[in-house]
Amino acid sequence: LAQGRNNFRCHSQNLRSMPSKRRNNGRSKHGRGHTAIVRCSNCARCVPKDKAVKRFQVRNIVDASSQRDIREASAYASFMLPKLYMKMIYCVSCAIHARVVRVRRKTLRDSPEGRIYTPPNKGKGKGK
Hints:
Largest sheet: 2 strands, antiparallel
Helix content: 25-40%
Structural class: alpha+beta
């Protein structure tokens, strides 16, 4: 039994560290040991706050036809209805499934241009 432990120790010293897929390991908690847990807006999975994909969804409070009726009935000429700002928090799997974020190739992930988020073109392209 003691021989087995020594054997394991020798093998563990020879192992190299595992390769890292991302520079920040998919998180942004640099130096913090633990971060708060949030729930995914789609599937309610527990996700660390720094790992979750966060996007604001901006919507009109009322639909377009009702908005026109309200504008016509309004006493103010230039009254703008307020918008509804919802902070959507997704786990990584839901964000990929809903196409909030896309999978990028390794060269793009590693390059400085790849770290800057650019939203995908919606409605432009071949409807895949």
